Amino acid sequence: MAVAAAKGTKFVVGGASGNTVGHCSSIGSPQVSTDEIETTALDNESGWKEFIASFKDGGEVSIEGFLDGEDAGQLAMIEALNSGEITDFAINFPDKIKVKWTFKGFVKAFNTSAETTDAVKFSATIRVSGKPTLDKTA
Q1: Alpha-carbon dihedral sign for residues 59, 108, 68, 88
Q2: Considering only CA atoms, which of 122, 6, 124 is closest in space to residue 65?
Q3: What distance in Å separates the CA atoms of residue 56 and residue 32, rounded to the nearest whole number?
Q4: Which strand (E) or helix (H) includes residue 37?
C-alpha cells in the first residue's frame, strides 16, 4: 500500500502543462455524487422505497492558500474567473500515491482575506463540468 503525506500535492490550472497554483495550504477534490429517482410504486408490498440512479455530478473543488500577486497559477485562476470559460484543471498528488484528478470546470469564486494574526490568504471554488477522472500516473 502506497500511503503518503499530502506534501507536494499540486493544483494546476490549464491541464497538465498549465500553471501550478503556488502557496496552496488546502486542496479539495471533486465531490462526485449521483442523483436519485424514486421508483416506489403504489402496489409495492415490501414497505421499502425503491430508487434508481440518475445523472452524476462532479460537484465543486475548493482550494485555499497564501496570496501572491506574482504567482502565475493564482493569476491564471483570476483570468479564468474573469473569462467564465470552461478550463482544464488537475490535482497532482505526490508521486508515491500514483494518482491524479483531471477535470474541466469554471472558476466560480475567488476571495481574499486579511487578518491581524495571519498572512493574506485566498480561497477559490471551481465548479466541475462533466466527468472528473481519477487516473493512475506512471
Answers
A1: positive
A2: 122
A3: 7
A4: strand 33-38
Low-confidence stretches of the chain (pLDDT beneath 70): 1, 138
For residues 93 and 27, what is the distance between their CA atoms, to the nearest angstrom? 10
The rounded distance, in Å, linking the Cα atoms of 63 and 81 is: 14
pLDDT in tens, 85-116: 999 999 999 989 889 999 999 999 999 999 99
Which H/E stretch holds residue 83?
helix 72-83
Calpha distance 55→53 (Å, rounded) = 7
Residue with cell 442523483: 35
The set of cell numbers assigned to 3 is 500511503
